[in-house]
């Protein structure tokens, strides 16, 4: 057992910026929330206008917008102009990273018009979308059809382009992998003005495997074909309290979705969704979800009664609401800004205005607060092999002592080309969990990725953490 003793951390001096951060809620309530509501109304009207258009008209507009982007690319002089990037302002990006490269010499291409769902093909189970289509927009369009992306990220504002070029994960990633793993093809604008379609088996297959995690450095994404899956109207969510040491919690977390007999593709043993929240070193809640019909949801009283006898709590949530259950609170980030954000009176009076627009939060923070967050605030995704999750939890507790932690597994595929993240050598050798604490899963991916039976996979797990370092 590892030593969980937390080292002594010296106190940090309180500065003026600490008080600005503490009372930032004044600006958020009286300025940011009001403007956010206006922005959300305008976005809603824009989405409504897009929905009224036929698929043929959307395709025609897409082709016209691509021609404009190509024309702009052809105006670039490689010897004088800088690197190609989008014209999107840095503060509009949802992520917390510094977009300093846009402060240097660069060549901008405006892609702001690329925010339409071009087509939803129920026969091929494919949605063709433009890069600025966000999760709220696509779910609103597909859920009434009992369809959804295989991987739907948790926040409404996250876009297809951002999730693909960065890091996209959801509670279903232990089945389907990351968001990029569900993309069937890319339409990419290259720096020389060409527009190519990249798939895993055409002449641009190397580009297909290189685009994920590339942060837009290889080309401009103008559309993507993304896998759809059938869903049901409700999510049957089982909340199970886990108590014990971190290693015991890690073991219970693995047992929630990784059967000890290795029968990983059995839907009776593997839930549709998995995520776990650790609130302290000895307590966590593991949430597993399965799609459920309206008829089953009507009988939820009987299920809840049975669950109480087992020490669990079962609830039925409409699928669309479940997908974005973290949106209004931005996980627990709103609590960091609005210290009273979870109080009943605030939720009653202003809860309908939540969440504050992330871009506005960044635009109104100023340089001092921006630097403060980069130096004293942690929002970090850590990818670790599943069999090392116990060690990882102990390391985070010992080195950072950060809670809560959001823990979510995802399937990692072995691809023909070595990409940004790749299964470690020897992982294909299965090791029985009953006789070892090391998890080794051999997963056949033919039914998921259509790569053939000779590709193996493994799991990674993600620890998502967020904290303001305290001065006391």
Automatic annotation (TrEMBL):
GO terms for biological process: steroid metabolic process. Pfam families: FAD_binding_4. It is a single-pass membrane protein. Its EC number is 1.3.1.72. InterPro entries: Diminuto-like, FAD-bd_PCMH, FAD-bd_PCMH-like_sf, FAD-bd_PCMH_sub2, Oxid_FAD_bind_N. It is found in: Membrane. It comes from the Eukaryota. Keywords: Membrane, Oxidoreductase, Transmembrane, Transmembrane helix. Residues 45-231 form the FAD-binding PCMH-type domain. GO terms for cellular component: cytoplasm; membrane. GO terms for molecular function: Delta24-sterol reductase activity; FAD binding. The chain crosses the membrane at residues 23-45. This is Delta(24)-sterol reductase.
């Amino acid at each position: 057992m590892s030593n969980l003793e937390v080292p002594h951390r010296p106190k940090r001096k309180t500065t003026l910026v600490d008080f600005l951060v503490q009372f930032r809620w004044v600006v958020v309530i009286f300025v940011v929330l009001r403007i956010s509501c206006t922005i959300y109304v305008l976005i809603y009207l824009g989405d409504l206008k897009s929905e009224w258009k036929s698929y043929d008209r959307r395709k025609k507009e897409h082709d016209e917008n691509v021609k404009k982007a190509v024309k702009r690319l052809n105006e670039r002089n490689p010897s004088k102009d800088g690197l190609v990037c989008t014209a999107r302002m840095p503060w509009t990006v949802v992520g917390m990273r510094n977009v300093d490269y846009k402060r240097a010499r660069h060549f901008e291409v405006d892609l702001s018009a690329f925010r339409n769902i071009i087509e939803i093909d129920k026969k091929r189970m494919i949605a063709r979308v433009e890069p600025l289509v966000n999760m709220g927009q696509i779910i609103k369009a597909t859920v009434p059809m009992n369809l959804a992306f295989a991987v739907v990220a948790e926040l409404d504002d996250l876009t297809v382009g951002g999730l693909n070029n960065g890091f996209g994960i959801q509670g279903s990633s232990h089945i389907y992998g990351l968001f990029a793993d569900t993309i069937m093809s890319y339409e990419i604008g290259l720096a020389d003005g060409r527009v190519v379609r990249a798939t895993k088996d055409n002449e641009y297959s190397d580009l297909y495997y290189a685009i994920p995690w590339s942060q837009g450095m290889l080309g401009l994404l103008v559309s993507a074909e993304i896998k759809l899956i059938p869903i049901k109207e409700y999510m049957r969510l089982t909340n199970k309290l886990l108590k014990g040491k971190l290693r015991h919690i890690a073991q219970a977390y693995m047992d929630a979705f990784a059967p000890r007999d290795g029968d990983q593709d059995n839907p009776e043993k593997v839930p549709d969704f998995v995520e776990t929240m650790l609130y302290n070193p000895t307590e966590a809640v593991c949430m597993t979800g399965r799609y459920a019909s309206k008829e089953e949801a009507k009988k939820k009283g009987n299920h809840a009664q049975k669950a109480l006898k087992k020490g669990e709590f079962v609830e039925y949530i409409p699928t669309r609401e479940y997908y974005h259950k973290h949106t209004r609170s931005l996980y627990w980030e709103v609590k960091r800004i609005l210290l009273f954000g979870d109080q009943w009176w605030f939720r009653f009076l202003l809860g309908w205005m939540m969440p504050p627009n992330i871009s506005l939060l960044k635009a109104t923070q100023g340089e001092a607060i921006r630097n403060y967050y980069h130096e004293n605030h942690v929002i970090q995704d850590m990818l670790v092999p599943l069999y090392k999750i116990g060690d990882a939890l102990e390391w985070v507790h010992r080195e950072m002592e950060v809670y809560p932690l959001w823990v979510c597994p995802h399937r990692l595929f072995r691809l023909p080309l070595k990409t940004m993240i790749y299964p470690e050598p020897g992982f294909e050798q299965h090791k029985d969990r009953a006789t070892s604490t090391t998890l080794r899963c051999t997963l056949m991916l033919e039914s998921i990725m259509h790569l053939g039976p000779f590709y193996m996979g493994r799991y990674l797990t993600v620890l998502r953490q967020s904290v303001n370092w305290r001065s006391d």
